[in-house]
Amino acid sequence: MSETQKAQTTTHKIGIYLWIWGLLFVLSFCSYMVDWFQFQGLVRWTLIVTFMLLKAGLIMAFFMHLFWERYALVNVLLWPMTAIACFITLMAAEGKYTVFTRLFYFFVGG
Amino acid sequence: MSDHTLDKLPGGFKGMATDMGSDQTVFKGVNWGKAMMWIFLLSDTFIFSCFLISYMKVRASVVDEWPYPSEVFALNFMGVPVPLLLIAIMTFVLITSSGTMALAVKYGYERNRKMCGWLILATALGGLTFVGMQAFEWSKLIHEGVRPWTNPFGAPQFGSFFFMITGFHGTHVSIGVIFLFIFARKTFRGDFDAGKRGFFTSMKSDYVAIEIMGLYWHFVDLVWVFIFAFFYLW
Question: Does B106 sit within 8 Å of A71, measured CB to CB?
């Protein structure tokens, strides 16, 4: 109940939601254009990741209200992501090693 | 939670330190259900991360050519193959429904029952459209011979990752749609205004439930952002 009373005084103006909504459409359109114009290689990956992170950030900050939450909650939610970042790094290295051993034993031979 | 006003507490990292060391509830001003939903979403993040990371690892280490998603997911429109057309429409539908959900939460807290109900219904219909298009995409690919163990385009692992990742996401969307319809009915009936007790938990209904529902729905959209980037665009 207290949550409702608190939020009643602090609901945000409709403008901010419409702005974020519009930005999400623009960013989605941009990421679709990456494929449309057939960018390849580093340009493609940089653009994809940039648009992706911007969209994810906007959704979490404003639609999921994290921008207005206290740091205790925000930090509990965001720090575990560093574990995922470590996992990605480890598996990227592992993937390189796997493809090396495959190419070596399949085509060069043991 | 009603015995303090949040504005008097220190903010930022200092506020975090005092919240953590307050010998009271840590997440001040956060409804317990909302905190639990966040923790569930965090664990769900790890599940989806595991799927996407294993996909990355396998795609990086296959010796066969990985199917080119731009061509695999192309759709013929007036006889011309348009790359990723259906996926782009699905992305826009999901973002639209995310926006209506955000507005539903806002109108819920403002006790605008009708507006809130219609927006939740719009969100549910958006989700239903998304699931429908996904079913179409699945049947199209199955018809073209894509299976979890083989496919005509290249590396056989493509199929298993496609069905696993989009299937798991689609399950989340479907569960969300079911709950959105239930919530739309509850909102129109006035459960959240009257504080009516729920049929399952017997707890009093409160508009905070719509924010919790919204968190789940935005998370589904968030996951799609990553799937769209890594599976379809990469």
Answer: no
